[in-house]
Design goal:
33% of the residues lie in helices and 20% in strands. The strands form four sheets. The chain has a nine-stranded mixed β-sheet. A six-stranded mixed β-sheet has the order 17-18-22-19-20-21, with helices on both faces. Strands 2-7-6-5-4 form a five-stranded mixed β-sheet. The two termini are 25 Å apart. The protein binds adenosine-5'-triphosphate (ATP) and magnesium ion. The site of adenosine-5'-triphosphate has 24 residues, from helix 4, helix 11 and helix 13.
Length: 476
Amino acid sequence: MIPLTLAQIAEITGGQLHGDPGAVVTGEVVIDSRRAGPGGLFAAVSGERADGHDFASAAVAAGAVAVLATRPVPVSSVLVTDVPAALAALARFVIDALPAAAIAGITGSSGKTTTKDLAAQLVERLGPTIAPAGSFNNEFGHPLTVLRADAATRYLVLELSARGPGHIAYLCRVAPPRYGVVLNVGHAHAGEFGGLDQVARAKGELVEALPADGAAIVNADDPRVLAMAARTAARVVTFGVDDRTALIRAAGVRLDDLGRPSFTLLTPEGQAGVTLRLHGAHSVPDAVAAAALARELGLDLAGIADGLCAAVARSRWRMEVRRRGDGVTVINDAYNANPESVRAALDALRHLAQDGRGFAILGHMAELGDTSRASHEDIGEFAAQAELAGLIAVGEEAAPILAGARRVRSWTGEALAVPDGTAALDALANQLKPGDVVLVKASRAAHLEGVAALLARGDDPPRPPREDMTREEADR
Ligand SMILES: Nc1ncnc2c1ncn2[C@@H]1O[C@H](COP(=O)(O)OP(=O)(O)OP(=O)(O)O)[C@@H](O)[C@H]1O
Ligand SMILES: [Mg+2]
């Protein structure tokens, strides 16, 4: 954060100051009062479960200099009419004050966080980099991330999400990117958009926001993304796995027994071998996109290849693979689910279970609109074709998965509908044997990550909790 006085904050946001105009905010801007700290600014937001204004005093007691609020609070404050708009104005002020910082935005239906985490680990090799924790990608998380930038920052690697038209254009006005990465156009939130073409329109707002001296980094394997080349003033850089004309490309992809990909990264400057620490073939396009972005920012091929080999999964519950003491392997991919990411996870499950039996515990995929039932049935069919030994659908909305699986006449696996995650665990108890692999996946709303964590632990002694889960992800 660049230091700002309360008088400046009031002026930038058009807010009303109640407090010492000379008091200086030097710390982080947060919307979670539990994260408020010395020198920071607490933005009070009214959510479904709680009203931030009730925590204004606690935030100041924890060291926050003041509160950004929409109604009077008993502590130093700047009163505004709209908190996200105020955060956006502050973020834009910070960006304008830091012309040396290069801004990159990443969007797509699946893999934004994975790509952002990989890209950040590459770009950090070039200089001080700000990237969001987890999926801080909306009208709150985006400006909060940008506000962490200061005079030392050279790069911002940002994740941009859209739940409707205009959302990405808005985020691009908050922090105008020079570099934009579009990963794919898929069914995530497609119900809210009204279809894939509408999703493509919205995701393409990123390339439309890029300047002529910028770079639009687009997936050559996805026709809807490649078509976005016509919507940008920026130079177009293509990446891909299948399309042999892509400028930055992965060739010879193969997976080890835990599904970790190795490939040859092909670039105009030469080629290099890469082995990822992530699991699943679907992480390859994400890695290639991250490589293309880092290359644009000036990282050389050796740095890119080294960086990709060293990069770890920074955000939780995406394809976390754990082999238990008893030889059972658990894939916790319970962060979220849409048709493309479930297919990707089932592909990985099939690969891991080559020498054993594969089981999938699947919850529903949210926000698919009219196509929801058919999409669930199709996933069931895909799972049955993957020759799983068992398919467990959790909750009523996931039940059509089983109807789809039964369409595959040759499938001999077991199909089971259960009401919740605990029942799924009970159903598997005593069934699993060494060599078996279990995938746990569902939309965020299903909260299957706890089930996956219990399953991954098995009878192994409990491990200390990991500290690397972001608060936002723990809360969502
Ligand atoms: N290229 C890809 N194609 C399909 N699925 C992918 C791809 N990359 C990642 N995934 C899967 O999609 C899920 C979400 O991954 P990730 O969190 O990186 O995506 P995201 O776009 O940030 O999602 P969100 O919109 O929830 O923020 C995970 O299950 C992950 O394994
Ligand atoms: Mg994300």
